[in-house]
TrEMBL record:
The chain crosses the membrane at residues 73-96, 102-126, 147-166, 186-207, 219-239. Belongs to the unc-50 family. This is Protein unc-50 homolog. It comes from Acanthoscelides obtectus. The keyword Transmembrane helix applies. Keywords: Membrane, Transmembrane, Transmembrane helix.
């Protein structure tokens, strides 16, 4: 009996460890990275995030994985963290050593450690409870981490870049307009994160219950209204926290 050849997507399938090794092996080979395409993805995360996830599906068809196999996006993301951290150091009047402390904290705690925790949470929940019945395909951990980076990038630019231009002149005061502007920045950033995360998982047709990702939105809006009424300036409070943890 002649054997039936496996489809290319199964034949070329690698283990998770092999995929990680291939990914990190390229991290210092800049000539092999597509920085132009990574920049395009960052732009479209603001204006049309659906197009970014369409590309993830193309990658699954051609390379047997949803997760990125090119670390260019991660390196550009790290570069943005460095640039925005310089802005924070200027706004908060940090010394050079405090700036280094702040940068390392932002990269390794705010981005990597929290990113790993969030990605692992979604990876476990989605594979355990949200896969359709009798579905063989699972959600890759690398993909959940990519979804987190995608969702984290617009808030990073909004909160750690654009917001800084308004902080000392307006947001840092006790006026209502200060609270309104600062808290609105945070509202838009959180809604961006939730929406892009939802797009990432709802685009996988073998998952169910993905609408639950957007279920916290009413609570976020209620919290936003409460902060305005109660006089709580989110940006001002978190700036104090950022400065406290590096002083």
């Amino acid at each position: 009996m002649s054997s039936i050849p496996l489809p290319a997507t199964q034949r070329d399938c690698m283990s998770a460890a092999a995929k990680r090794w291939k990914y990190f092996r390229k991290i210092f080979k800049f000539e092999q990275m597509d920085f132009e395409f990574a920049f395009w993805q960052m732009l479209y995360l603001f204006i049309s995030p659906q197009k970014v996830y369409r590309n993830f599906h193309y990658r699954k068809q051609t390379k047997s994985q949803f997760a990125r196999d090119d670390p260019a996006f991660l390196l550009l993301f790290a570069a943005w963290l460095c640039v925005t951290s310089i802005g924070f150091a200027i706004v908060l009047k940090l010394s050079f050593l405090q700036f280094i402390h702040f940068l390392l904290y932002t990269i390794f705690v705010d981005c990597i450690i929290i990113g790993i925790l969030v990605a692992t949470f979604f990876w476990f929940i989605l594979n355990r409870y949200c896969r359709k019945k009798d579905e063989v395909q699972d959600v890759e951990w690398g993909y959940t981490f990519d979804v987190h980076l995608n969702a984290f990038f617009p808030p990073l630019v909004l909160l750690h870049f654009f917001q800084l231009f308004f902080y000392n002149g307006l947001i840092s005061h006790e006026w209502f307009i200060s609270r309104l502007l600062g808290n609105t920045f945070w509202l838009v950033a959180v809604l961006y994160y939730i929406y892009i995360t939802f797009l990432g998982y709802s685009s996988l047709n073998f998952l169910r219950y993905t609408h639950l990702v957007i279920s916290p939105i009413p609570l976020v809006i209620i919290f936003y209204i409460v902060t305005l009424v109660s006089g709580f300036n989110i940006t001002h409070s978190l700036m104090d926290f950022y400065k406290y943890r590096v002083v």
